[in-house]
Design brief:
By secondary structure, the chain is α/β, with parallel strands linked by helices. It is built from 9 helices and 10 strands. Strands 1, 2, 3, 4, 5, 6, 7, 8, 9 and 10 form a 10-stranded mixed beta sheet that branches. A hairpin with a 5-residue loop joins strand 6 and strand 7. The protein starts with a strand and ends in a 5-residue tail after the last helix.
Length: 263
Amino acid sequence: MVKVSIIVPVYGVEAYLNECIDSLLAQSYTHLEIILVDDDSPDRCPTICNTYATQDARIITIHKKNGGAGSARNVGLDCATGDYICFVDSDDKVDKDYVLHLLRTIKDGDVAVCGYTQYKKDGCVKQNIEPEGVYTGKSYLSQFLLSWHCSLIWNKIFRREAIGDIRFPENRKIDDEFFTYKVIAKCHKVTVIHTPLYYYRLRCSSVMNNPASQSKILLDRVEYLAQRFLFVKDVFPDLEQLFLRDLLDNYVRIWRSCKNIIP
């Protein structure tokens, strides 16, 4: 059986962490390495992580100085020993067949992608899916122009070799967008299925929904879009015009949204 490493950055989520870890321990595919990276969380998360590590040998707990989710994921990547890598946010949860279905889907490919469900405390849910099919890295990269969902990391399983030495940027409010397209560009085969296997929790206190973070998120997105355009321009020159048009369209949308943030 191949080993799957699941990397979980942990910070300030004591109300949700047990549910997250329990969903990982309940996986129908059992040859796992669950890496909990405590990013100097100020609540009971460090204790919760330590307790689980004493109860199941598949769990590894790492405590580090606070550096953000990107930093925590990088620490997890550096110590992961699995043949495949998944990323799960510590306030979310996964279906019991999350790993099994993604492994069956990836087969001889580099990345497999599943659908996901957004849910709120009041029970409101919404399922999100991408166009199902088998893509080359280049053709899936083109899908980034049609759907922002493509840049997500937690609804995917990655072959370890596809990631290689690619790492997340640190000190960012968003980091997956700087990471995923670089991995995808190296891939020979990306397979997408509709099955919603990941449960993404929508909460007002998350980084993405915190009003105080919005200006930094916009700045991160401006830089991400520029970096992505320059990267694609060099790797796939024939996609340059498509990504340039998308870059300019996004900058216009960002400028308009700034009116609601900047006085």
